[in-house]
TrEMBL record:
Lineage: superkingdom: Bacteria
Protein name: DUF4138 domain-containing protein
InterPro entries: Conjug_transposon_TraN
Length: 264
């Protein structure tokens, strides 16, 4: 068994020994003919089951928010999941020929604890706004992930891409990348995030609503020639309607270069 597996098993025993002495864990039922999906509020970093009668599969290459559980008839087991925000979730697993629930949406408050000590700033809230350190920590986790491309646009040697759009609590985290292959350094004036309602062809119903970031992590003032820069915007939570989309506009300071990207 790999060292990481031993560590996870030790964590399973540690947390379950504590909880069995305090309160019973939630039970999730599974069988061999259907997939039971578990959706977590943050991406899954690691997961382990107690025995081979149950299998919990998730994307180990590109962290995702859900995993699939199956099991065969036998003794009960347990599942331990650690998410990218260091939260720990634990469940009892049992086999059942008939399943009444195939989808489990896990809330952040369902966790049994977290790895690493919580700092005072993590626990403080000023109204609904978290301390900047909270934004930095979660932004750092996102920037550690392998870059993906949800949408990209290149113009005049400047490439703007949207990598991730992640809902976390009351915020939306947008991960961007800017690559400069223009031969000239690019001074960033601003990157606007605009909510678009309707079609530009029908001006009477068309509307653009700027969305103001509440925090920026690693936002560059300049992207030098040949450089690639990744950074994060934190915005208040929003959900796009059926006829709504986003428009991202990157503009140059002391220059005329402009890149417009419409990811949705």
């Amino acid at each position: 068994m790999k060292r990481s597996g031993l560590v996870l098993c030790a964590l399973v025993l540690f947390f379950l020994n504590i909880l069995w002495g305090q309160e019973s864990l939630d039970t999730i039922y599974a069988n061999e003919s259907k997939n039971v999906a578990l959706f977590f509020p943050s991406t899954i970093r690691q997961a382990v089951v107690g025995n081979d009668d149950f299998v919990f599969s998730y994307d180990r290459e590109e962290a995702g928010y859900f995993g699939l559980l199956q099991g065969v008839e036998g003794v009960e087991s347990n599942l331990l999941v650690i998410t990218s925000d260091h939260q720990v979730y634990a469940y009892i697993l049992k086999y059942s020929k008939e399943l009444s629930q195939l989808n489990h949406f896990i809330r952040e408050g369902d966790g049994i604890g977290r790895i690493g000590p919580a700092t005072e700033s993590e626990l403080k809230r000023d109204s609904l706004v978290m301390e900047p350190s909270h934004y930095d920590r979660f932004s750092g986790v996102l920037l550690e992930e392998k870059p993906k491309v949800m949408a990209t646009k290149r113009k005049m040697g400047i490439r703007l891409r949207l990598e991730y759009m992640v809902y976390h609590g009351d915020e939306v985290y947008l991960v961007f990348g800017i690559r400069n292959r223009s031969g000239i350094d690019f001074e960033v004036d601003r990157l606007e995030v605009i909510r678009v309602n309707g079609s530009a062809k029908r001006r009477a119903s068309y509307q653009e609503i700027p969305l103001e970031p509440i925090y920026g992590h690693g936002v560059p003032n300049m992207v030098k020639d040949g450089e690639m820069v990744r950074f994060v915007y934190v915005l208040p939570k929003f959900v796009l309607g059926d006829k709504e989309g986003l428009k991202l506009v990157l503009e140059e300071l002391h220059g005329n270069r402009r890149v417009e990207l419409r990811p949705f």
